[in-house]
């Protein structure tokens, strides 16, 4: 299960993710991103991964795509989420359809 919460203010949009970014939940994340992206304008994106417990390869790719398209600030707190953040930042490929 994946919980996606968005918070918006004048300067930033935050996408808070909690749970597993895998399987059908990746489609939910991509759909949420497609809805949010046009509303970003000049605001910064914060991608909060502190509640993520797992991401499969397609989930990681979706996060890479969001990062490469937005230059998001990635929030992480555990060793695993820090590693996930590193993986997202390290791969410049982007192919979000």
Structure description:
It is built from three helices and four strands. The protein has 97 residues and is an alpha/beta fold. The protein has one domain: 2-Layer Sandwich (Transcription Regulator spoIIAA), CATH 3.30.750.24. The protein has a four-stranded mixed β-sheet with strand order 1-2-3-4. A hairpin with a 3-residue loop joins strand 1 (2-8) and strand 2 (12-21). Helix 1 packs parallel to helix 2 (57-70) and helix 2 crosses helix 3 (79-90).
Note the beta-strand portion: 25-35%
Strand order of the largest sheet: 1-2-3-4
Low-confidence stretches: none
Compressed to H and E, one letter per element, the order equals EEHEHEH
- CATH hierarchy: architecture: 2-Layer Sandwich
What is the assigned CATH homologous superfamily?
A: STAS domain
**Ends apart, CA distance between termini:** 23 Å
- Give the rounded overall mean pLDDT: 93
Largest sheet, strands/sense/barrel: 4 strands, mixed
**Domain unit count:** 1
What is the strand tally?
Answer: 4
- Our Rg estimate from Cα atoms comes to 12 Å
Q: Which overall shape is indicated by the principal axes computed on the Cα atoms?
A: globular
Q: Briefly note the structural class of the backbone.
A: alpha/beta
Helix content: 40-55%
């Amino acid at each position: 299960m994946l919980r996606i919460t968005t918070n918006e203010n004048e300067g930033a949009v935050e996408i808070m993710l909690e749970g597993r970014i895998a399987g059908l939940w990746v489609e939910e994340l991509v759909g949420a991103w497609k809805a949010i992206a046009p509303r970003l304008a000049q605001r910064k994106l914060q991608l909060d991964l502190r509640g993520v417990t797992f991401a499969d390869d397609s989930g990681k790719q979706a996060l890479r795509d969001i990062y490469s398209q937005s230059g998001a600030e990635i929030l992480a707190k555990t060793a695993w989420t820090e590693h996930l953040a590193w993986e997202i930042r390290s791969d410049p490929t982007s192919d979000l359809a």
